[in-house]
Amino acid sequence: MSPTPAPAPEPASGSASAPAPAARIGAWFIGARGSVATTATVGALALRAGLAPAAGCVTELPELAPARLPALAGLLTGGHDIATDPLPKRAEELAAGGVLPGELARSLERELRDADRRIRPGAGPGPETQRAAARRIADDLTAFRDRHGLDRVVVVDLSSTEPPAAPAPELDSLDRLEAALDAGASPLPLSSLYAYAAFRADCPFVSFTPSPGPRPPALGELAERRQLPWAGSDGKTGETLLKTALAPMFATRALQVRSWTSVNLLGGGDGRTLADPANAASKTRTKAQGLEAILGRPVDGPMHIDYVPDLGDWKTAWDLISFEGFLGTRMSMQFTWHGCDSALAAPLVLDLVRLTARAAEAGECGPLAPLAFFFKDPAGTGRHDLAGQWDSLTAWAATALAGDARGEAAR
């Protein structure tokens, strides 16, 4: 892969760009020029400018108001990527595909150019050791936080899915990991390298992909030492969202699900990545486990993920559910889900940045189980039913986060 050119310097104060509102938190995207990150960046800018409603933003619902989350108006984006196409061009491409309005991409072009200057070269194949890469990434995060006077930076992994692999033994403990990195070894999957660097820079981490990210024990130990929260894994945006809403219906009505067949047709970069069976294995694992947890047993039925380039950034899922009722009567249900994954994922990314930043402010650390509502493979809990996850999220907002806010006010 050719080296990424050094980013242009950010505009100095007094430049032609209109000054942004004072930013209090930063959203640092791994894969910052990808479809989801670009859509999230455009969305954050549009919401700040009052150009779009907050449709899909869970954190704007009244049930989460007690948590006193940081305002979207004070959110600033940055990130890492090995891709070089600038954000305005990526926004134009997404607008051409119907992901976002073309007029919005044009009206925010100047702000997108500014945001693109805050993207730094990502880690990838090359001579750089993992120790050196981690230091460079951590330095980028620290510089971003200090330069813009941010209270906190939340790192969100939106990069391509990694294939499953047996974890290196060095990931069993932090001391062994540090020794391996000092010796020039490369034991970390790329997603875990970013998580390691984020924790070293005192940044909370959100794993929006099924990649390992912060899950190895050594990184969990590092997060505990640094008193940092993290959340994951694998954002729940489409077909799996429906499964976690529908499966409890069959379970609570004592209807025996005999098989649940799923066919997923994807375009875009995600589909291209998942066309590799090794990468797809990570995704199918997280998509299947929620159904098993809710129904209490494995369920027959194939699950396919197929790449259809013509679909672009859109995806279609078709599910066929065979179930058995009273006296063994056989019945079935089927549904088709057609949606734009980037438009579904982007508001959740903004939600997770706000919630994770607030959790860090409240002094929470380790996996944030109440954020299971957003994930296919939730860390810190085995709960998968959507309604139960929502109850946990709102209760957390009304107690742990609101309680911390009341304590601050009293002081």
From TrEMBL:
A Pfam match is Inos-1-P_synth
List the Gene3D superfamilies hit by this protein, alphabetically: Dihydrodipicolinate Reductase, domain 2, NAD(P)-binding Rossmann-like Domain
**For the Myo-inositol-1-phosphate synthase GAPDH-like domain, which residue ranges apply?**
238-342
Matching InterPro entries: Myo-inos-1-P_Synthase, Myo-inos-1-P_Synthase_GAPDH, NAD(P)-bd_dom_sf
Mind listing the GO biological process terms from this record? Answer: inositol biosynthetic process; phospholipid biosynthetic process
A GO MF annotation of the entry reads: inositol-3-phosphate synthase activity
The family annotation for this protein states: Belongs to the myo-inositol 1-phosphate synthase family.
Q: Which PANTHER family match?
A: MYO-INOSITOL-1 PHOSPHATE SYNTHASE (PTHR11510)
Its name, as the record gives it, is: Myo-inositol-1-phosphate synthase
Source organism of the structure:
Streptomyces aidingensis
